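Database export, one record per block. Field names are fixed; values are copied verbatim from the stored entry.
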Amino acid sequence: MKTIGLIGAGHIGSQVARLAVANHYDVVISNSRGPETLAALVAELGPHARAATPAEAAKAGDIVVVTVPLKNYRSVPVEPLVGKIVIDTNNYYPERDGHIPELDNESTTTCELLQAHLPGSKVVKAFNHIYAAELTTHGQPAGTTNRRALVIAGDDREAKATVARLLDQFGFDTVDVGPLKEGWRIQRDTPGYGPRRTAEDLKKDLAAAKRYAQMR
């Protein structure tokens, strides 16, 4: 039994927790407001879930999902995540996060920001381009015709392979867009961001993606 730690328990975090428990993982889930505020979610998830602080979730998880508003990424604990696979679900919304100059000028990406904050971790981008509610309704068994695909990006080959296996367990095919610097191809306002796509369709969307500067 592997353990998935979650730093963030909002729409995506709670849905990933549901998927994890349904696929026989233990879950340690946290948020910024304290474990006691997660009592209802933990009760729903059952005996394989517990609430904790972000540092405790980071320490407990074999894989840790960071799903906090991007503006709070510096609050993610660093030391407990050294050597671990960290799944980054974040997207950049200036109206929520404030303006981040290096994202505005596109000199970096959201996942590269988190990787820079967690230099000892293996960051993999995933879950950022699917509506949260669809995480628990769109999954299908491997080999299903027109199975939905999700994108990953990352600089560590083995970490990406592990996340791809996790996505397969959760009911999704995987399209690897390459290193973290290519994560922009599935950011908000790109063709693949949001709609249901098969792997082949998603590859076309990724190829057609344009930088924000090119959209203006």
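Remark 1: DSSP finds nine helices and eight strands in the chain.
Remark 2: The chain has one domain: 3-215.
End of record.
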